[in-house]
Design a protein that fits this description.
This protein is of the alpha/beta class. Helices cover 54% and strands 16% of the residues. It is elongated and about 115 Å long.
Length: 491
């Protein structure tokens, strides 16, 4: 019995050494225990010495019951201590994880606080301009020229407010993974030059010299033109904001190579503006980051433009770099590798500024809109284009008016989406199910504040042929109406 206890204790001690070695290895892999390395190694040494004592007594000594009991009890004690140590280590590591989560939550809360502070300032600034200039414009006796200036400033502030909302929503969609690239064949040189033309007016207003230089051999590539345009506008917009009057901005596109299937392209935007500090450049692609200087604080912006730009470049598997020096300017360098596409003939279709006034008859539209103000605005805009307008205050009313009309009476329907009684999607499907095909095939265009890609797809799934986003862009509305009506047999 005495020797049995010694041998059993020896086996138990070997098991303890093996278990402790695994435990120490796991601890080193799961946490930072550099200072505890020596302490973790020390118990192994004690356990080995304890085992040697067992073996010496078992093979060379003459153990009695007392010595055997002490050695066996020591093995049990070591086993219990290992269990306790493991539990303590697990509890410490769990506390470290909780601490890390707490710090992350505090960081997120701080970021949210900064975001809300930025948004409060940035939204209130153009909103104050809109309300203030509206009050001034409404005063009796104002000269017509002053009223026009106020309206121009209201329009500018409104577009600033819209840009802020768009940036916040776009960043949210990108972060949630709802934005996907839609590659299609485009002429990359034309795309860059057209974006340059869009920003050239803004540059001219600030008296900034703006040049565009392109050197491309393979112009037709597969690329999401909308996202490329957004990326360039973000970078060029920043260059315009932070370059003073009399400065210069250069946009260049160069092809740096090709392997026959894909081309390598480098886009550079260089300005001689105020530049950026090294501290800010390190965080320039973080959401809501803005340079904190007296000059920059006067400039509108959400701090999301560069974060969105970086996300777009990443989605395109490209790279973006920044070269900057305070007081001397900034240069953004975007490198992209894009699949080559078959060259296409780009036919320039004649621009028809008003599809109604160039047709042989006055066209009549049915406007389904529940909001009185939106209805008044749309009626004014469409009437100025030469359309006759009839109104329905909800989707159900619009369906009844179409069903009761003679074929050809209405040329198209402009359909709001979120309406009482019957929403725009339900109304569009109900119209498509009318028994008379001459009525059921009437063109339907969504005119809604639902502005995302999935909203356009939902409208298409409901049987609509077009999508106009609120706030209404006159050029975009005119183009959509022209495209839909020209493709309709009703013209």
């Amino acid at each position: 019995m005495v020797y049995g206890m010694v041998y059993l204790g020896s086996a138990l001690m070997i098991y303890n050494i093996w278990q402790y070695a695994r435990f120490a290895k796991r601890i080193r892999e799961r946490g930072e225990w550099e200072q505890e390395q020596k302490i973790l190694n020390f118990p192994i040494l004690l356990l080995v010495l304890f085992l040697c004592g067992y073996l010496a007594v078992g093979f060379f000594g003459k153990p009695d019951l007392l010595v055997s009991g002490i050695l066996f009890g020591g093995s049990i004690f070591v086993l219990v201590m290992q269990v306790l140590i493991r539990r303590i280590a697990d509890r410490i590591q769990e506390n470290e994880k909780l601490k890390a989560r707490l710090m992350a939550a505090e960081g997120a809360n701080q970021a949210k606080t900064v975001f809300l502070s930025n948004m409060s300032h940035d939204i209130r600034t153009p909103l104050n301009a809109i309300l203030g200039y509206t009050t001034l414009a409404r005063k009796d006796g104002r000269p017509q020229e002053e009223v026009r200036q106020y309206l121009h400033r209201i329009d500018t502030a409104g577009h600033q407010l819209l840009a802020i909302v768009n940036d916040v929503l776009e960043m949210s969609r990108i972060e949630s993974g709802k934005v996907e690239l839609q590659p299609e064949p485009i002429d990359i040189e034309d795309a860059v030059r057209e974006t340059g033309e869009l920003i050239s007016g803004q540059m001219a207003e600030k008296e900034i010299s703006f040049t565009v230089d392109c050197n491309v051999e393979n112009r037709c590539v597969l690329c999401d033109g909308n996202q490329l345009d957004r990326m360039l506008l973000n970078i060029l917009g920043n260059a315009s904001k932070f370059t003073p009057a009399g400065g210069k901005v250069e946009l260049s596109l160069h092809q740096t190579g090709t392997d026959g299937e894909a081309g390598s392209y480098e886009i550079r935007v260089k300005d001689n503006g105020i530049g950026m500090s090294p501290e800010f450049v390190r965080n320039i692609f973080q959401p809501f980051e803005r340079e904190r200087t007296s000059t920059v604080s006067k400039t509108q912006g959400t701090g999301l433009g560069m974060a969105i730009t970086k996300k777009i470049v990443d989605m395109m598997n490209g790279e973006i770099a920044v070269l900057t020096e305070q007081g001397r300017g900034t240069e953004f360098i975007v490198t992209l590798r894009l699949p080559l596409a078959e060259a296409r003939n780009h036919e320039q279709a004649g621009h028809n500024p008003c599809p109604c006034r160039n047709s042989k008859k006055t066209m009549r539209l049915l406007l389904a809109e529940d909001n009185v103000i939106n209805r008044e605005i749309a009626n004014e805009i469409l009437s100025d284009m030469g359309f006759q307008i009839e109104n329905a205050e909800n989707g159900e009313r619009a369906v009844k008016m179409i069903a009761a009309s003679e074929p050809g009476y209405y040329n198209a329907v402009l359909m709001d989406i979120q309406m009482p009684v019957m929403d725009g999607y339900e109304a569009a499907r109900a119209i498509r199910e009318l028994p008379d095909p001459r009525l059921s095939q009437i063109p339907i265009i969504a005119m809604t504040a639902n502005a995302f890609k999935e909203d356009e797809e939902a409208a298409q799934d409901a049987g609509m042929q077009g999508h106009i986003t609120k706030p209404i862009d006159l050029d975009a509305m005119r183009k959509t109406l022209m495209d839909v009506l020209e493709n309709s047999s009703e013209i």
